[in-house]
């Protein structure tokens, strides 16, 4: 596997499940890494997922308590350092080699539960290639002006125009 690069590669994930529970519709959101789900409620952005980066104080505390070293960079970026490697995430899927060097990096997701209301209009799932350049409030404001496909395309184009060179994935769902 190492010859194929599979021990060094990893990814993030955000997934949602809508479920009818009695009279309510419940949204379950799970994420690992720095991709996120944002619910648009009454035009306001509600982040439903957790940022799994060393810049998150709770994640940094957990990682340091497990004995890992976090290096701060002048750009405000921080990374976990181990065995000559660096990782910007505190949780990821894959990254097997790094996880052997720094067992504090987990593949375990956070799960949130949200009971939807009539004020909930859109759900936005996107990677950090979007969220690092487009604030959730701005993304939420874009939803009502056009179709979900056009909103997703516009979010992608906006992130690129602001300098995103990371992987970009965005899905906008009308509720």
Give an overview in words.
The chain has helices at residues 57-65, 96-101, 128-131, 136-143, 148-161, and strands spanning 10-11, 13-21, 24-32, 36-41, 44-47, 69-72, 78-82, 85-87, 93-94, 110-115, 120-126, 170-174. The protein is α+β, with helices and mostly antiparallel strands. Strands 5-4-11-12 form a 4-stranded antiparallel β-sheet. The termini are far apart. The mean pLDDT is 91.
Give the integer mean of the pLDDT values: 91
Helical amount: 10-25%
Number of DSSP-assigned strands? 12
Number of helices: 5
Uncertain segments are none
What portion of the residues fall into strands of 2 or more residues? 35-45%
Largest sheet: 4 strands, antiparallel
| Strand order of the biggest β-sheet | 5-4-11-12
Element order, helices and strands? EEEEEHEEEEHEEHHHE
* Termini separation: 42 Å
Rounded Rg: 17 Å
């Amino acid at each position: 596997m190492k010859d194929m690069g599979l021990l060094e590669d990893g990814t993030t994930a955000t997934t949602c499940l809508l479920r009818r529970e009695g009279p309510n519709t419940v949204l379950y959101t799970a994420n690992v890494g720095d991709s996120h789900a944002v619910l648009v409620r009454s035009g306001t952005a509600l982040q439903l997922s957790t940022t799994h980066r060393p810049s998150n104080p709770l994640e940094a505390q957990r990682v340091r308590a497990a004995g890992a070293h976090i290096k701060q960079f002048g750009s405000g970026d921080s990374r976990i350092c181990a065995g000559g490697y660096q990782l910007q995430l505190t949780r990821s899927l894959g990254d097997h080699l790094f996880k052997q060097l720094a067992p504090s990096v987990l593949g375990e997701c956070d799960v949130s539960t949200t009971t939807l209301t009539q004020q909930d209009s859109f759900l936005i799932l996107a990677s950090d290639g979007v969220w690092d350049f487009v604030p959730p409030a701005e993304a939420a404001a874009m939803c009502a002006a056009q179709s979900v496909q056009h909103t997703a395309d516009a979010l992608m184009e906006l992130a690129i125009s602001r300098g995103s060179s990371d992987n970009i994935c965005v899905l906008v769902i009308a509720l």
